[in-house]
Amino acid sequence: MAPAIRILGIDPGLRKTGWGVIVSEGSKLSFLACGCVESAGDLSLGERLRQLHEGIGKVIAAYEPHEAAVEETFVNRDPQSALKLGQARGIALVVPSLAGLSVAEYAANLVKKTVVGVGHADKKQIQAMIRVLLPRAEATSADAADALAVAICHAQHRGMRALVAQMRAAG
Known about the structure:
alpha/beta, five-stranded mixed sheet, 5 helices, 22% strand
């Protein structure tokens, strides 16, 4: 039996960054926790990013994940929004890395395809599949459900990523 691995999934956003922690033991997945880290819209960008940094840090301290996975963001039509989202995504990548976790990134279409079976699934389909795959999950927001989907995607693909890394190191 493979050892139990706690995986933190993160769905980055400047207003709400969804997070979800699952336990992967072989092919068995278990729900641990999920929620959102929110930043106050009336604060400066720097303060909002600090709130995200501190919030993700608290999640890591509380649940002690072994690995993290972050959803890649698509390019928004509004360049200002895309830049702000990119900065929030940077926080989502660096906080787990600073905590010593390996951080994987997954395209949104791959996350959806892994969890739902189609790459263009909508939020309701993702939430429905989260309830099927993690029956005890209490995802009260779409952001938390998306983060759990990122964690599930990582659980399904982490073995292949490790194999590819070993092959590159040996070759």
